[in-house]
Design brief:
elongated, about 90 residues, single chain, mainly alpha, 4 helices
């Protein structure tokens, strides 16, 4: 039987995603929300309602390409400075 390194990396990546910090936070938020609803504990409901959407925001921010974003801002700033310098 052949050893497929690409498949091994893919499986490791899947396991990494399943046991990631984001997944743990999502489970904690859902557990807190459910526990708060069952026991009518308002603090647990509050934290559940904050954590669950926070995980999705964290995931969205994490996926954004910040290097490209800052490079585009610096390029726009450089063009603006050149425009001002040429206008004088």
């Amino acid at each position: 039987m052949q050893h497929d390194e690409a498949k091994e990396r893919q499986e490791a990546s899947l396991l990494g995603r399943l046991f990631s910090l984001e997944a743990a936070l999502l489970l904690m938020g859902i557990a807190s929300l459910v526990y708060g609803l069952v026991t009518t504990n308002s603090m647990n409901i509050f934290f559940g309602l904050v954590i669950v959407p926070g995980v999705f925001v964290l995931n969205r921010v994490k996926k954004k390409d910040w290097k490209a974003h800052w490079a585009a801002l610096e390029e726009a700033q450089r063009r603006e400075q050149e425009r001002r310098r040429d206008g004088r």
